[in-house]
Amino acid sequence: MEKILQSVGNYGFPIIVSIYLLVRIEFKLDQLTKSISGLRDAILVFTRAR
After folding, report:
1. What is the structure's pLDDT at 9?
2. pLDDT along the chain (50 residues), means of 10
3. CA separation for the pair 15, 11 (Å, rounded)
4. What is the spatial distance between Cα 21 and Cα 25, in angstroms, rounded to a whole number?
């Protein structure tokens, strides 16, 4: 029983933290993609107005 708890402590916590960070990074990348797309559209509108 002690060995199982030790294994969960050694491997479970890093796995949970890794999954959490991957989900956060994915969300941030989606936001950055939307922002870059918006900037591209704004640049196109600006250059066409000239």
Report:
1. 84
2. 87 94 97 98 90
3. 6
4. 6
Q: C-alpha dihedral over 6, 10, 12, 14, to 10 degrees? A: 160
Predicted TM-score (pTM) above 0.90: no
User: DSSP 3-state assignment of 1?
Assistant: coil
CA-angle at 13, arms to 8 and 14, nearest 5°: 115
For Cα atoms 4, 8, 10, give the angle at the middle one, nearest 5 degrees: 115
In whole angstroms, give the CA distance from residue 34 to residue 41. 11
Question: What are the C-alpha distances in Å from 37 to residues 5, 14, 45, 50?
Answer: 47, 34, 12, 21
